[in-house]
Amino acid sequence: MLPAWRGSGLAAKLLHAIEAWLETNGCSRITLDTTLPLAAAMKFYEKNRYWRSGKVSDFFGMPLLEYVKEL
């Protein structure tokens, strides 16, 4: 996201819109992946009620952490 848009709430609005669309279309569980250097992404996911599933994969030598949200 461009620095000028940070803190505007746009990312949360986009996330909530896609969650609503997914739920309307029969999705009951969302998973998102991120890596440790993306601490801001992890904080954003947790703020929006995603939790670490405990599943860790390899992403070109980096741990890839899975986040989950039940709809």
Can you walk through the features of this model?
With 71 residues, the protein is α+β, with helices and mostly antiparallel strands. The protein has a domain of 42 residues. Helices cover 34% and strands 35% of the residues. The protein is built from 2 helices and 3 strands. Strands 1-3-2 form a 3-stranded antiparallel sheet, with helices on one face. A hairpin with a 2-residue loop joins strand 2 and strand 3. The longest helix is centred in the N-terminal third of the chain and has 15 residues. The chain is flat. The protein starts with 9 loop residues before the first helix and ends with a strand.
Essential attributes:
single chain; 71 residues; alpha+beta; three-stranded antiparallel beta sheet
Strand percent estimate: 35-45%
Uncertain parts? none
Strand order in the largest sheet: 1-3-2
Order of helices and strands: HEHEE
Q: In this structure, how is the largest beta sheet organized?
A: 3 strands, antiparallel
Rg from alpha-carbon coordinates? 13 Å
The number of helical segments is 2
Average pLDDT, rounded to a whole number, is: 95
Instruction: Output the structural class.
Output: alpha+beta
Helical coverage, percent range: 25-40%
Q: Tell me, briefly, the overall form.
A: flat
N- to C-terminal separation?
Answer: 25 Å
Number of strands: 3
